[in-house]
Amino acid sequence: MKRILFALAALVLLTGGAGEVPSDPSTSPTVNPHEGDAKAIEAGAKLFKRVSCHGCHGTNARGATGPDLTDDTWIRQPTDQMIFNVIKFGRKGTMMSPFKDDMVDDQIWYLVAYIRELGRQRKAEGG
Ligand code: HEC
């Protein structure tokens, strides 16, 4: 755990994204401020491994215990805000637990940007 926190702290320093951590969800942006940003996507890819999303969602998010995050099939409506909320607040009653204590909002948006980029890449490859 300490190592994960250290890695996250280092990442925050590297990306200069420390900033505020709004605890009230209504203050969070509803569109991804980092959409399509190559640096954010790279940071999201690193977070995906460091915060061990890949443990459940598989390498490159193609699905394992948790669902594939790169296909067009979503359990709920696939807005960026929904993806953000699932990561931040989790899904009650499922193995998808909240990550709000592990990452600041910007880092969660990096993950959203990364997941969206994987989806685009997959589409470009023809599914
Ligand atoms: C312990 C296993 C586990 C871990 C770790 C985990 N997830 Fe999940 N995740 C799940 C499961 C199971 C679901 C499906 C929940 C449901 O049935 O609604 C899910 C759902 C999701 C969804 C919604 C998918 C959909 O189709 O609606 C997203 C997005 C997501 N996870 C992203 C992440 C990210 C990003 C991380 C890392 C920060 C992560 N998850 C870590 C198990 C996990």
What oligomeric state do the depicted chains represent? single chain
Instruction: List the secondary-structure elements in sequence, H or E.
Output: HHHHH
Tally of helical segments = 5
How many distinct folded domains?
1
Mean pLDDT rating: 83
SSE class: mainly alpha
Can you tell me the CATH superfamily? Cytochrome c-like domain
Question: Could you outline the blueprint of secondary structure elements for this entry?
Answer:
Blueprint: H1 2-15, H2 38-50, H3 54-57, H4 80-89, H5 105-124
The structure holds heme C.
Descriptive report:
This protein is mostly helical and 127 residues long. The chain has one domain (2-22, 31-124): Orthogonal Bundle (Cytochrome Bc1 Complex, Chain D, domain 2), CATH 1.10.760.10. Helix content is 48%, strand content 0%. The chain has helices spanning 2-15, 38-50, 54-57, 80-89, 105-124. Helix 4 packs across helix 5 (105-124). The longest helix has 20 residues, at 105-124. The chain is globular, with a radius of gyration of 14 Å. The relative contact order is 0.20. The model is unreliable at 10-25 (pLDDT under 50). Heme C binds at residues 51-53, 55-57, 65-67, 69, 74-76, 83, 86-87, 91, 94-96, 99, 111.
